[in-house]
Description:
Layout: H1 6-47, H2 49-61, H3 67-76, E1 83-84, H4 86-91, E2 105-115, E3 121-132, H5 150-157, E4 164-168, E5 179-182, E6 187-191, H6 196-213, H7 225-238, H8 251-255, H9 260-314, H10 318-333
Parallel strand pairs: 4-6
Antiparallel strand pairs: 1-3, 2-3, 5-6
Amino acid sequence: MDNSFDSLLNASAVPQDEKVQAFIAESKNNRNRCYELSEQVTAQVATDGKMLQKYLDVQSTFDRYTTNNALLILAQRPDAQKLGDYGYWRDHGFYLKRMEQQNPVLILEPGKTYKREDGTVGNYYNAKKLYDISQTTMSDTTIQKSEYEEHDLIRALVSTPPVNIVAAEPEQMPDEKGAFFKPEEGCIYVRKGMSAQEIFQNLVPELVFAGYADGNPHYDKNEDAFHVSCASYMLCKKYGMDTSRYNFLHAPEFFEKMETQEVRVELSRARDAANTISARMAKVLDQNRNATYRQSEAEKNGQDSSENVKDKKENPEPEKKEQKSRGQHRKEAR
């Protein structure tokens, strides 16, 4: 009888090798799936104005994601509100629903770098599995977007602008526009008397134009009209402004004869322009939020202190009561 345990050890190693091979195969398939989905959904966005608008909706929700990953989200779960991997949801005390574990949202993340034949450096990409909040055990799947006061939004919007912003009388505005950027003057004129919603809707496109102009007095606004429309829509969507004035039905004309890679480049230009403005706004809005929080805490602490003082006056400390009681007993003992 063979008393050697070597065969048992070798047998236990086989499943592990198979597991590694299965993981590698799955990763490759997921990566290829992402490439296929990206090509398909990009072609749809370039030929269908309604699909373009849906992409802009997704990109405004996931503004920190790359254009390609926003397109992948659009292709797989366009109604997603908050995404995280398995570890993210576990760390937040939630878990994936059993039926959803096989329905991840795949995105691409940069992996190892490599050197191309021409000497430039490229990146390998890995597919990552994400899950929407609606796929988890969190009972409330509705994400409450931060609500800002209109005054705070406008204050954030005009903070550190790329050009001067000047309030103008209505009769001074060309074609009764709400706002108008003049590259040759490096200035945006804004019509007086508008509501916060009107200021935001009219000022945002001109700020995007000013960003593209980058100080060029001869800048032609027609060059970036499409990108400005996309970026402005995303910003209005992000901050809860009315977007009914936007119409992208003629967008396919802009993308005509473009390859899918070129389409993604153009979409990225609009995304980057929107993010430049939202990043400036975020600094001011975060400062306001922190200041409000500190004030609230100070008022709360002040109220607690007042209540403690009042409580001490009405209810003497037990120790003092006990000392008084001991003194009374000594006096009676005498």
